[in-house]
Q: What sequence folds into this?
């Protein structure tokens, strides 16, 4: 039986829709107020644990392969889903805490990414985390290029970006007139939507790979190589 992350397509859309919506609220408040409310990140963390417990229990009831075990019962599926969520949240917290100690992100970013880890598990979090870093690098590159390539302008732009980062990490709002304001949560939102819609495009039935029956359950990164071999 194919290994899938979601029990069916509508659960997949609800799961990702709620995650996208909550992350979007976090990005909006972070951009506008340079602060992500604790109540939001705590709610995201709790909902991530619940969502994965339900997802795992559902998968177990259907007799599908789980994250830790090859198959199981409803209760074993719930335990499996909670394990995936807790491992993802723990790794996310450790990595983001290190970045916070280094002064490269704020406390709200640590809590937000911990909640994301609870929703996506270890593999999902790492995919999104790396994609977020790429989006940030691309934004910084275009910000520097847009300011001019002379050494003086590059130095001034980097100094302004560093000042903005320090101000936001301290919870200080930037002037509303400041162009191209960027917080960690905004590239996170962009990466989250792009990565998850691509990785789960089969489970979401956005596309149906040639040579694979529409009735065949498709998967994300859990067994991505198996589907690629069928398509190829």
A:
């Amino acid at each position: 039986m194919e290994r899938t992350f979601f029990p069916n397509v509508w659960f997949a859309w609800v799961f990702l829709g709620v995650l996208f919506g909550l992350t979007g609220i976090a990005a909006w408040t972070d951009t506008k107020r340079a602060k992500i409310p604790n109540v939001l990140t705590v709610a995201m963390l709790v909902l991530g644990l619940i969502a994965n417990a339900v997802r795992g229990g559902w998968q177990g009831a259907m007799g599908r392969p789980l994250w830790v075990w090859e198959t199981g019962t409803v209760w074993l599926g719930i335990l499996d889903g909670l394990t995936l969520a807790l491992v993802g949240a723990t790794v996310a917290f450790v990595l983001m805490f290190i970045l916070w100690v280094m002064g490269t992100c704020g406390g709200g970013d640590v809590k937000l990414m911990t909640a994301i880890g609870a929703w996506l598990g270890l593999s999902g979090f790492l995919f999104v985390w790396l994609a977020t870093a790429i989006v940030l690098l691309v934004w910084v590159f275009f910000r520097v290029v847009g300011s001019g390539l002379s050494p003086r302008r590059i130095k001034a732009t980097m100094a302004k970006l560093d000042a903005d980062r320090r101000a936001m990490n301290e919870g200080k709002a930037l002037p509303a007139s400041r162009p191209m304001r960027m917080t960690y949560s905004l590239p996170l939102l962009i990466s989250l939507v792009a990565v998850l819609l691509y990785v789960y495009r089969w489970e979401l039935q956005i596309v149906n790979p040639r040579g694979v029956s529409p009735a065949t359950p498709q998967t994300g990164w859990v067994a991505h190589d198996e589907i690629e071999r069928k398509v190829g």
About this structure: DSSP finds seven helices and no strands in the chain. The helical segments are 9-33, 38-61, 74-101, 107-146, 151-169, 185-199, 224-231. Residues 9-224 form one domain.
